[in-house]
């Protein structure tokens, strides 16, 4: 059976009456985290944009609102969600309309995370139903708010383990009028990271820095650097970046639609989506450690790319516990963490989807879970077994 | 008598005060322990100077290990802990109590690592905000959040309060630049959260700790993100005869898709006070002024100002002063950043910090004026207009208890109005002591109980910075 509450009050009643776990989902387009168990509690009945204030650059939507509806509304006003949310259907091979609630719960930001922040950086407020069936509002609708303990960010990216999200309020940005992507070919990993660091350390406002390895559409690696803004400014900064990176072989830039298509593909993990049976990982680390991490992964990584200037590795492996073990072993000595973002449910239940926590963080994670969801109703075990 | 109630100090602790001081002095190096009354007196208040309490002792650890030891000792003796950076809190966040030990981070002021390739810095919590940017300016980098107190305030205090600043319209606040912390818990355990990778693993504990006003533990080390300096930056002044035109102009600029790096608002009284102090060349004959700063190359700045100018003219701007030199620019910002200090030279004031949705600014300004006029008090408005974070400075005489009470009551009305208009009690200064008892205006009892339950995960006994943030009666319940 599925519960599909029509508003927060109804959701709170359902939670208060419950004594067995829920499997929380929006449209179910993100098969991410350890496999769920329990009765489906769906946010799909909580639809609709509550407000969009273009002059305040804010938007509030109920959790079941399709992300597409939000993006279309914002496009009309020349605005956007700053963090470049992925379309999860490309990677996960799912159908349906990804929702605002799923966006907040999974917190998967795209390449613009570099300049515009992660999902949580652009999340001004949430409304959740906690495990006691209470409606809890955190944050609000204003850009600056330090009133009380911030329960907004901890909700974001918790994969629904801390509460049932019913509403979210976002900070927006003006949609850039123009963009350009500088392409540098044939850099090895070390040189690629160096070039990206130089670009990101420049004053030219780079809002995307990725390197797509050979074998994914081309026979050679491509390092890509994006600038966005007003047309004249984009032209100027692209020119300056090409000059700055001349020694790396920076020559030409992709413009307009061609540039947009490229970053959409990076955002969605499209380069790694096929073949479908492969396991897909994302590792967050210090950019300068990326070459060493890739070397340590060796042939365990069947395909890979670097985003966020090298601070985010996407890679594919065989869908086996053995490969997962190799990934954990290869990255063990490199500061950062890795998550198994795509695999069939069987594998996700057998291996750690997230980097295992040290005892202190495990205790705090358990404690925070307990304080919001004392009966363990919400997506138990979705992030960590037993929590 | 002060309006904000302080809890009665624990008589059992006060009775053992000398013994506790002796034990602390015996366990920690002499230079880390302040027990004499004159020495403790220096820590009796912060920038909310109307409230003072002499702490039981002051500990000034030099390392994470000494901090952990200090906290273990406090736990052994059952005393409360008041963490302290530079003591610049405007909300009383660092005001101690007679039965509490202040743990100050001022001796932990080293920059440990600056990594340009990976764009982060690792610093000790007692480092001042400005010194981080200064350490890397020559290499073309900076740390973005810039509270007005940045010369004195510490990064640890910034983390505790999730501090903002004039330039957070573009760059965001502390939490947007925090990559990791080393946290010492009440048990004296050292926990590393996040680090040099851009996004930390698991639940977002950094988001929880940042802005928790020191109630979850003591942060001793911090990883911050650093950014390349813009090619150039230039402010300009826009003077209006009608204050509402100025605030509508702000909304129109943002609505047009332009995001200047800063948009600051000052009303006539604020202009007069700061101009007399800083001689920044502010126009004295306008009702309201915007300081707008744009960044980039010279042609980019010119182009952005051209767009802004068009909008400003449509909103009746009368005086436009473009800045001709770096010195002029520095003067303009010096004036803005010294606004609170300059006000303090002519009168006592309380500084409110509510945020309202920017679309409600004209109404909010009008109502602030009405509230203060009704109380017979003068008010100067100087604030971050781009993000709706208002700072009405309500002027009063601290030696006139009646007037102080009036000022505090007017302040409360202003904050209640901020919440009513869809905003919040505090945008960047924190709740501290000052706004503690107003929390129920913004949150339901369930919401406050939930926040406290999360706090209790870190500090089950409520030892860190007690009697702050949450209403006292709520705490007793």
Question: What's the quick description here?
Answer:
Chain A is α+β, with helices and mostly antiparallel strands and 387 residues long.
Task: Describe what this molecule looks like in 3D.
The complex is a heterodimer of chains A (387) and B (477). With 387 residues, chain A is α+β, with helices and mostly antiparallel strands. Chain A folds into 3 domains: 2-174, Uridine Diphospho-n-acetylenolpyruvylglucosamine Reductase, domain 3 (2-Layer Sandwich), CATH 3.30.465; 178-268, Alpha-Beta Plaits, CATH 3.30.70.2190; 279-350, Alpha-Beta Plaits. Chain A has 13 helices and 18 strands. Chain A has an 8-stranded antiparallel beta sheet with strand order 14-11-13-12-16-17-15-18. In chain A, strands 4-5-9-7-8 form a 5-stranded antiparallel beta sheet. Chain A has a 3-stranded parallel beta sheet with strand order 1-3-2, with no helix packed on it. In chain A, a hairpin with a 5-residue loop joins strand 7 (123-129) and strand 8 (135-139). The longest helix of chain A has 14 residues, at 231-244. Chain A starts with a strand and ends in a 15-residue tail after the last helix. The model of chain A has no long low-confidence stretch (mean pLDDT 96). By secondary structure, chain B is α+β, with helices and mostly antiparallel strands. Chain B has 5 domains: 11-104, Uridine Diphospho-n-acetylenolpyruvylglucosamine Reductase, domain 2; 111-228, Uridine Diphospho-n-acetylenolpyruvylglucosamine Reductase, domain 3, CATH 3.30.465; 233-339, Alpha-Beta Plaits (2-Layer Sandwich); 347-420, Alpha-Beta Plaits (2-Layer Sandwich); 444-476. Chain B is 37% helix and 19% strand. Chain B is built from 18 helices and 18 strands. In chain B, strands 15-12-14-13-17-18-16 form a 7-stranded antiparallel beta sheet, with helices on both faces. A 5-stranded antiparallel beta sheet of chain B has the order 5-6-10-8-9. In chain B, helix 14 runs antiparallel to helix 15.
């Amino acid at each position: 059976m599925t519960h599909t509450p029509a508003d927060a009050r109804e959701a709170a009643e359902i939670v208060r009456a419950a004594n067995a776990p829920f499997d929380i989902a929006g449209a179910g387009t993100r098969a991410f985290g350890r496999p769920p168990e329990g009765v489906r509690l769906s946010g799909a009945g909580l639809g609709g944009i509550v407000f969009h204030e273009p002059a305040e650059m804010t938007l509030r939507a109920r959790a079941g609102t399709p992300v597409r509806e939000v993006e279309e509304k914002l496009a009309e006003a020349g605005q956007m969600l700053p963090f470049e949310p992925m379309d999860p259907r490309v990677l996960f091979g799912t159908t349906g309309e990804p929702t605002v609630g799923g966006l907040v719960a999974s917190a998967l930001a795209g390449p613009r995370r570099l300049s515009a922040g992660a999902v949580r950086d652009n999340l001004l407020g949430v409304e959740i139903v906690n495990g006691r069936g209470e409606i809890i509002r955190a944050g609000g609708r204003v850009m600056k708010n330090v009133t009380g303990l911030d329960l907004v960010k901890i909700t974001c990216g918790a994969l629904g383990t801390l509460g049932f999200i019913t509403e979210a309020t976002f900070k927006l940005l003006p949609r850039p009028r123009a963009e350009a992507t500088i392409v540098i070919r044939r850099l090895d990993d070390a040189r690629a990271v160096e070039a990206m660091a130089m670009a990101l350390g420049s004053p030219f406002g780079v809002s995307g820095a990725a390197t797509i390895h050979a074998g994914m559409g081309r026979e050679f690696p491509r390092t890509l650097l994006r600038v966005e803004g007003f047309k004249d400014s984009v032209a100027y900064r692209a020119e300056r970046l090409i000059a700055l990176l001349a020694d790396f072989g920076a020559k030409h830039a992709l413009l307009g639609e061609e540039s947009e298509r490229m970053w959409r593909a990076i955002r969605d993990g499209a380069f790694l989506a096929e073949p479908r049976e492969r396991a897909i990982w994302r590792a967050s680390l210090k950019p300068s450690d990326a070459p060493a991490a890739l070397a340590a992964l060796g042939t365990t990584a069947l395909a890979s790319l670097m985003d966020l200037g090298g601070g985010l590795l996407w890679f594919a492996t065989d869908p086996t516990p053995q490969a997962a073990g190799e990934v954990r072993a290869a990255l063990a000595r490199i500061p950062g963490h890795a998550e198994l973002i795509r695999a069939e449910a069987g594998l996700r239940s057998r291996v750690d989807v997230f980097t295992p926590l040290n005892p202190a963080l495990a205790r705090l994670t358990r404690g925070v879970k307990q304080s919001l969801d004392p009966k363990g109703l919400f997506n138990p075990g979705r992030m960590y077994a037993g929590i | 008598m002060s309006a904000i109630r302080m809890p009665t100090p624990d008589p059992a602790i006060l009775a053992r005060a000398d013994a506790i001081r002796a034990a602390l002095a015996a366990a920690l190096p002499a230079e880390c322990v302040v027990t004499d009354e004159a020495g403790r007196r220096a820590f009796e208040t912060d920038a909310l100077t109307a409230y003072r309490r002499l702490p039981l002792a002051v500990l000034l650890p030099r390392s994470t290990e000494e901090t952990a030891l200090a906290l273990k000792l406090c736990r052994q003796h059952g005393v409360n802990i008041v963490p302290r950076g530079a003591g610049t809190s405007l909300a009383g966040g660092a005001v101690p109590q007679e039965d509490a030990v202040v743990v100050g981070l001022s001796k932990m002021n080293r920059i440990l690592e600056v990594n340009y390739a990976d764009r982060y810095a690792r610093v000790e919590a007692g480092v001042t905000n400005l010194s981080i940017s200064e350490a890397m300016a020559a290499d073309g980098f900076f740390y973005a959040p810039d509270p007005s107190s940045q010369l004195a305030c510490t990064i640890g205090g910034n983390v505790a309060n999730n501090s903002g600043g004039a330039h957070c319209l573009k760059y965001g606040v502390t939490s947007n630049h925090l990559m990791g912390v080393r946290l010492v818990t009440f048990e004296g355990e050292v926990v590393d959260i996040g680090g040099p990778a851009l996004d930390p693993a698991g639940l977002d504990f950094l988001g929880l700790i940042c802005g928790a006003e020191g109630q979850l533990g003591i942060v001793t080390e911090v990883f911050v993100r650093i950014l390349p300096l813009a090619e150039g930056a230039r402010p300009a002044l826009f003077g209006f005869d009608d204050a509402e035109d100025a605030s509508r102009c702000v909304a129109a600029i943002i609505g047009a898709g332009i995001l200047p790096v800063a948009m600051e608002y000052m009303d006539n009284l604020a202009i007069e006070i700061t101009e007399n102090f800083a001689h920044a060349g502010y126009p004295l004959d306008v009702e309201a002024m915007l300081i707008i700063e744009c960044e980039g190359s010279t042609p980019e700045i010119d182009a952005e100002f051209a767009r802004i100018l068009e909008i400003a003219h449509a909103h009746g701007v009368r005086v436009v002063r473009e800045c001709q030199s770096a010195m002029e620019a520095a003067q303009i910002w010096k004036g803005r950043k010294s606004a609170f200090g300059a006000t303090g030279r002519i009168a006592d004031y309380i500084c409110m910090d509510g945020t309202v949705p920017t679309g409600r600014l004209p109404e909010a300004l009008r109502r602030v004026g009405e509230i203060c006029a009704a109380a017979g008090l003068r008010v100067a408005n100087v604030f971050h207009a781009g993000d709706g974070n208002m700072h009405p400075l309500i002027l009063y005489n601290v030696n006139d208890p009646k007037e102080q009470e009036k000022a505090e009551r007017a302040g409360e009305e202003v904050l209640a109005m901020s919440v009513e208009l869809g905003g919040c009690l505090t945008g960047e200064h924190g709740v501290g002591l000052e706004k503690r008892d107003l929390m129920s205006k913004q949150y339901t009892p369930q919401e406050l109980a939930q926040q406290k339950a999360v706090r209790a995960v870190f500090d089950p006994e409520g030892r860190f910075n007690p009697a702050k943030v949450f209403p006292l009666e709520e705490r007793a319940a």
